[in-house]
Amino acid sequence: MKQLRKSVLTCFLAFASSWAMAQQTAFVATWAASPQAGSANPAEPLDEIEGQTVRERVRVSVGGAQISIRLSNEYGSTPLLIGSATIAAPNDFASVKPDSIRRVTFGGRNSITIPAGAPALSDPVAFPVSAGTEVSVSLYFPQRVATPTVHLLALKRAVVSQRGDQTMAKTIEGATTLSSIALSAVLVPAQPAQRLVVAFGDSLVDGDQSSVDADRNWPSDLIRRLGEVPGDSKAAVINEGIIVNRLLGDAFGGVNGLARFDRDALAVSGVTHIVLLEGINDISFPGAKLGGNYLANPADMLSAEDVIQAYRQLISRAHARGVKLIGATMTPCEGVVIPGYYSETKDAVRQEINKWIRTSGKFDGVIDFDAVLRDPDHPSRLLPRFASQDGLHPNDLGYQAMADAIDLNLFR
């Protein structure tokens, strides 16, 4: 009996030691998406959630033996009840491999109520993933979600069920959406000397006009490039782009870049480097019209110095945290389909800012996306083979060219 008690005690101490070590393990973000307010669009199923399950997918940039998910109610006006949550290996956007389904807990409980304006981090789940693989996340919302926190341009099909908790179901039948709800990050245990690159900016970071369900924005293409580099130490890459985002002014796509920089970049678990590609909307919105309405007051034209001053602020804030900030030049947009978005005067401002990015020495490195995408015979336009139909965003080939042009030594 004495020997039995000793054996039990030894096992308990070993478990306690293992549990304590797990609690001290640092985690790094392997995927993320910037929280935004819902669109209040009655045709968008995520804006009418009540007693339903949403299944959405993410592709991780680095792997690990465990997963933790971060949920967000940051734009909620009332507490958000998550009735249950699971993760699994997907077959497609609506179905998962049944044997892979794992429950996600929060402080040991299957459900959690997230206060308005707050995030919530789950317990780690034993769910080994490799770099570049997809994970399916299913969330059950028992109550009506009055003001959802979403990411508008997820560019991956998600499914919204009929009524009921279907988080354990192999397949969910329901409406589809290209947005995501509540899910803002996926984390895995950090490796020694782990690096994390945050791609921060507007729709050219978010991947507007890239192919749906293909992960063809330039941050995703960069993940694939890094995965081909020999050696075990890989840099995680996450995409914190938001469509129509500006540095100095709010828009329907979210709060301005200066306001969200801490939340979406500096506070990301494990961040070491940030790539900044933003400013074209600050220059081009004043006087531009979409659907007959001005995107910004024509009188609110910004100078190059206005945008440069915003850059200086972000550089100072990054350096105060010991994070490297890499500046990316703004790409051309003559021929854009939005009336008033482009003018020669606005393009001159863009080029003046790009010159400062290249020559000031204030950033910790520079990526010259303008040089990659511009047409040598018409530098104020995108090279036709890299341009999407809107004249502003690259196509898949253009996004790949952006990723291919990045010097990976910038992230060492």
How many domains, as an integer? 2
Give the tally of β-strands.
25
Radius of gyration using CA atoms only = 22 Å
Reported for the largest beta sheet, the result is:
6 strands, antiparallel
Any idea what the CATH superfamily of the largest domain is called? SGNH hydrolase
Strand order of the largest sheet: 7-6-11-3-13-14
Shape: globular
Helix fraction bin: 10-25%
User: How far apart are the first and last residues' alpha carbons, in Å?
Assistant: 57 Å
Overall pLDDT level: 93
- Strand-residue fraction? 25-35%
| Tally of contiguous helical segments | 9
**What is the CATH level 1 assignment of the largest domain?**
Alpha Beta
Which properties best describe this structure?
25 strands; 24% helix; disordered N terminus; 412 residues; alpha+beta; 6-stranded antiparallel β-sheet; Rossmann fold; single chain
Account of the protein in words:
- Helix content is 24%, strand content 28%.
- With 412 residues, the protein is an alpha+beta fold.
- α3 (218-227) packs across α9.
- The strands form seven sheets. A six-stranded antiparallel sheet has the order 7-6-11-3-13-14, with no helix packed on it. Strands 1, 4, 9, 10 and 16 form a five-stranded antiparallel sheet that branches. It has a five-stranded parallel sheet with strand order 18-17-19-22-23, with helices on both faces.
- The protein has helices at residues 2-24, 203-206, 218-227, 257-266, 280-284, 304-320, 344-359, 369-373, 396-404, and strands at residues 27-32, 36-37, 52-59, 64-72, 80-82, 84-88, 102-103, 112-114, 119-121, 125-129, 134-141, 149-151, 158-163, 174-177, 180-181, 183-189, 195-201, 235-241, 273-277, 289-290, 293-294, 324-328, 365-367, 374-375, 378-382.
- The chain has two domains: 27-185; 190-411, 3-Layer(aba) Sandwich (Rossmann fold), CATH 3.40.50.
